[in-house]
Amino acid sequence: MNETAKALYEILSDYAANLVEPSSGVATAAFLKTHLEDLSLDSLDVLEVVMAIENRFEIALDEDEVAMTKVVGDFAVMVDRLSAAA
């Protein structure tokens, strides 16, 4: 599992009890395709997840991009792009 996916799992597991830790490349790919709506996160949970991601990676996520986020992998793409630009 790459470092971004691992960190996202650690953050999301604090808010979504139904996550299964990805242990292989196939499981990581499935984790990154997990729909946020399947995690049963309420709006406060999403806000806390965004703040945790920003703190963990020392980045600022764009509000509009976050609003369009549908799967965990969308967060991974944003994190990788913003981290590379920093």
From TrEMBL:
<dbReference type="InterPro" id="IPR009081">
    <property type="entry name" value="PP-bd_ACP"/>
</dbReference>
<dbReference type="InterPro" id="IPR036736">
    <property type="entry name" value="ACP-like_sf"/>
</dbReference>
<protein>
    <recommendedName>
        <fullName>Carrier domain-containing protein</fullName>
    </recommendedName>
</protein>
<dbReference type="Pfam" id="PF00550">
    <property type="entry name" value="PP-binding"/>
</dbReference>
<feature type="domain" description="Carrier">
    <location>
        <begin position="2"/>
        <end position="83"/>
    </location>
</feature>
